[in-house]
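TICKET: design request
STATUS: open
ATTACHED STRUCTURE:
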């Protein structure tokens, strides 16, 4: 970065940082498209193929489990190689896979096996992108700017949460779910082009030498587990992942079948979560400064978990159910965004630079195993005891996650 560019960053913050703005734009475009897919893919399974709760659970597994295998390799790759080519390759592979869905639909060959195959490719490439992006941001931004960078990244994610599902629901209603997915493929191409325009040369740690898969895994586990604060964050996030993956496999089916919402109404509901997320991203840094990192993290988990009680409480009256779900999306998503911004920043600041990729991969492997576990368990419980009793497990997720942090309160920085 030139002296002039450094002065601009000091004066305008990251809004004067060209390379960060390119990455930020790429993340925003891709996030909008991903929300379209998140809305349209299960709708395609339900409306075009007639998927059951178990089918949707398997679709969630296909999106997450292959990523675990990629994460086992991705951590070492990311620590030892340039991150930008990995990000571009992940974007282009996702675009190509998603285009297979509208192509199959137009030829009358769309079926569940194809949806599973696409989900596997998209899920694996998304994990590679996530691990590389987690480290790439530290190449572009000074550590003292990471809280600002993560807050801005969550802000565009929240904007995508507002607009993406609403656009996806409307596209599904107008064009059918498979055709709506084509819009996501275009966003990944746009993301790849923006990332390719970044000029900053990446730093490859001098200690990042070739190692075996098991050595990389040991290194990742070691750096995550040895620090009390990182370990507590790991356990809290794992708890959230396990419990909220119940919702990932059941939410669409519950809203459309049990609460009688239309696809367009569901898209609007999910989009409202982005408003809370946008506010949460904006106040995450100020909350940590005012109340301390520890209190902010614990309070956000407790509030975010408590709001999930409104999901099973929602009655099968669309107008009333929508208000319950919107309240959960607004307040719950806002609180959990505050947690995520501070959790991500704390990890990036506390972990050693030469092991960020392997630590992120360890995080991804653990949560990646828990996501399909929770999805299948949630689907099985819903079949056995009903949808609402299963969803009542969600409010307890925030409480259990907060207890992990309370137990390690002396290790966490701040108040």
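STATUS: resolved
RESOLUTION: sequence designed for all positions
ATTACHED SEQUENCE:
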């Amino acid at each position: 970065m030139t002296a002039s560019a450094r002065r601009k960053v000091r004066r305008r913050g990251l809004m004067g940082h060209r390379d960060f703005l390119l990455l930020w734009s790429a993340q925003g475009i891709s996030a909008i498209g991903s929300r379209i897919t998140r809305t349209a893919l299960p709708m395609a399974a339900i409306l075009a193929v007639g998927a059951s709760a178990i089918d949707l659970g398997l679709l969630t597994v296909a999106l997450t489990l292959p990523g675990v295998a990629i994460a086992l390799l991705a951590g070492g790759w990311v620590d030892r190689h340039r991150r930008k080519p990995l990000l571009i390759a992940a974007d282009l592979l996702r675009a190509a896979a998603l285009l297979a869905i509208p192509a199959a639909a137009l030829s009358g060959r769309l079926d569940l096996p194809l949806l599973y195959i696409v989900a596997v490719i998209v899920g694996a490439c998304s994990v590679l992108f996530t691990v590389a992006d987690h480290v790439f941001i530290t190449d572009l931004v000074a550590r003292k700017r990471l809280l600002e960078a993560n807050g801005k990244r969550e802000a565009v994610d929240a904007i995508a949460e507002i607009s993406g599902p609403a656009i996806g629901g409307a596209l599904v209603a107008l064009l059918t779910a498979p055709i709506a997915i084509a819009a996501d493929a275009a966003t990944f191409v746009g993301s790849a082009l923006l990332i390719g325009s970044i000029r900053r040369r990446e730093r490859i740690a001098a200690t990042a030498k070739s190692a075996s898969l098991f050595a990389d895994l040991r290194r990742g586990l070691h750096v995550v587990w040895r620090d009390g604060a990182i370990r507590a964050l790991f356990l809290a996030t794992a708890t959230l992942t396990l419990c909220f993956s119940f919702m990932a496999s059941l939410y669409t089916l519950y809203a459309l079948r049990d609460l009688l919402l239309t696809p367009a109404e569901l898209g609007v509901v999910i989009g409202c979560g982005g408003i809370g997320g946008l506010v949460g991203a904006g106040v995450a840094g100020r909350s940590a400064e005012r109340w301390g990192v520890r209190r902010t993290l614990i309070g956000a988990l407790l509030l975010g978990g408590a709001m999930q009680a409104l999901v099973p409480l929602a009655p099968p009256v669309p107008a009333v159910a929508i208000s319950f779900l919107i309240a959960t999306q607004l307040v719950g998503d806002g609180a959990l965004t505050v947690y995520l911004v501070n959790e991500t920043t704390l990890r990036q600041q506390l972990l050693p630079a030469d092991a960020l990729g392997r630590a992120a991969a360890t995080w991804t492997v653990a949560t990646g195993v828990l996501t399909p576990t929770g999805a299948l368990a949630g689907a099985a419980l819903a079949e056995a005891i009903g949808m609402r009793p299963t969803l009542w497990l969600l409010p307890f997720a925030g409480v259990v996650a907060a207890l992990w942090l309370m137990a390690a309160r002396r290790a966490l920085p701040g108040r």
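CLOSING REMARK: The first helix runs from residue 3 to 12. The domain at 14-200+211-407 is CATH 1.20.1250.20 (Growth Hormone; Chain: A;).
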